[in-house]
Amino acid sequence: MNDTASLAKQFKAELDGISTILIGTHLNPDGDALGSALAMSQYLNRLGIHNEILCHHPAPRNLQFLPGVEKVRQKPKYEKYDLGIILDLDSTDRLGNMEPFFTGCSRLVVIDHHVPHEAPGDLRIVDTSASATALILTRLFLALEATITPDMATCLLTGIVTDTGSFRFRNTTPEALGLSAVLLENGADLNRVSEEVFQRKPLASTRLLGHTLDTMRLDCNNQIAWGVVTLNDFEHTDAKDEDTEGFVNEMLFIDSVLIAAILREPKLGKVRCSIRSRGDLDVASVAREFGGGGHRNAAGCTFDLTIEEAETLLVNALKKCLASC
Ligand SMILES: [Mn+2]
Q1: Distance 86 CA to ligand 1 centre (A)
Q2: Distant-in-sequence, close-in-space partners of 82: CB < 8 Å, separation ≥ 6
Q3: Ligand 1 centroid to 162 CA: how many Å?
Q4: Which of 80, 134, 176, 248 fits 156 for a cystine, CB–CB 3.0-4.6 Å?
Q5: Ligand 1 centre and the CA of 300: distance in Å?
Q6: φ, ψ for residue 227 (rounded to 5)?
Q7: 215-264: pLDDT as tens digits
Q8: 133 alpha carbon to ligand 1 midpoint, in Å?
Q9: 235 C-alpha to center of ligand 1: Å?
Q10: How confident is the model at residue 1 (pLDDT cuts 50, 70, 90)?
Q11: Distance 83 CA to ligand 1 centre (A)
């Protein structure tokens, strides 16, 4: 906590005399990415500091309920900003097309919980043991004695709920529960967050899930399961890439499965993979092998290959990962 107090002081010092701030987060933003960015924006609004949020992709359907989400844009207003604050990412290339706007900022603050890749930033508030970036931000706001409004609390809780899988993953620490309770006291709407993030999806998504589970592949005595969603599957069901969110978990739920993966081909020559594992199996190292990253039990990477080529490479690496344990 002392560490938080000193980082909070340094963060406050970064805001001294600043009039424009650019807030950024990663490609394919999740609840932690957008929840953190929006909470930061609302904190800066209360301080009267002009701020904008940039993200390579717009907010996905299940995060459209987040207060202030209309602020997320793909283009900045000005040419140069005093300060950039990037949240929930470990390297600036995860900013996608937004990267040059942030590397052009006079100073850069990084707030994150991933294992660092490149360690960019003039001030780094990074804690790899934190369940979510939103949790680090909650700590920071409390240390700064900032008012956490109900909207900020809902955004922050969305980050914690998303990254802990509704308080089910092993990163659900006493602190995650304790700070979530604080956010509830500040007016966060847990029921709304759970329903919007996890319990509402288009028919096309469920149809595509059916097809993906139907064609699921298994290897190593059913300890590895993976699904492949081709461009043709997307077109056939009218589903979007974001509609495959959670598919990989459905495969990990199978009792024999230790590693699950989903490969999607949202366009030809581009393959996105999400990988999940149980226990000590480190799939982040597999993802890093292919230029991706993440956490031990939840990681991802992208291939500029055909889906068949990507499948061969990934499955071989997953088999190695399983054998090494
Ligand atoms: Mn996160």
Answers
A1: 12
A2: 18, 19, 20, 21, 105, 106, 107
A3: 8
A4: 134
A5: 13
A6: -120, 150
A7: 999 999 999 999 999 999 999 999 999 899 899 999 999 999 999 999 99
A8: 5
A9: 30
A10: very low
A11: 22
Indicate the average pLDDT of the chain: 96
Report the distance separating Cα 39 and Cα 109, nearest Å: 15
Query: Which residue in this structure is represented by tokens 């059916």?
Result: 210
Tokens for 315, please give them. 């499955």
Q: How many whole angstroms from 143 Cα to the centroid of ligand 1?
A: 20
| Distance in angstroms between the alpha carbons of the first and the last residue of the chain | 35
Mean pLDDT of 295-301: 93
DSSP state for residue 30 in the 8-state scheme: -
The pLDDT tens digits for 14-68 are 999 999 999 999 999 999 999 999 999 999 999 999 999 999 999 999 999 999 9
Query: Which two tokens mark 145?
Result: 């004695």
| Domains, the chain, ordered by start | 2-198 (3.90.1640.10), 203-323 (3.10.310.30)
Separation of 132 CA from ligand 1 center, angstroms? 5
Model pLDDT for residues 120-142, shown as the tens digit of each residue: 999 999 999 999 999 999 999 99
Distance 114 CA to ligand 1 centre (A): 7
User: Which position has the token pair 């995060």?
Assistant: 63
pLDDT over 70 (residue 2):
no
Give the Å distance between the CA of 214 and the centre of ligand 1. 31
Distance between Cα 236 and ligand 1 center (Å): 32
Residue 34 alpha carbon to ligand 1 centre in Å: 10
What Cα–Cα distance (Å) separates residue 316 from each residue in 161, 243, 286, 304?
Answer: 33, 27, 10, 17
Sheet holding 20-25, edge to edge: 72-73, 50-54, 20-25, 83-87, 107-112, 123-126
Question: Separation of 46 CA from ligand 1 center, angstroms?
Answer: 24
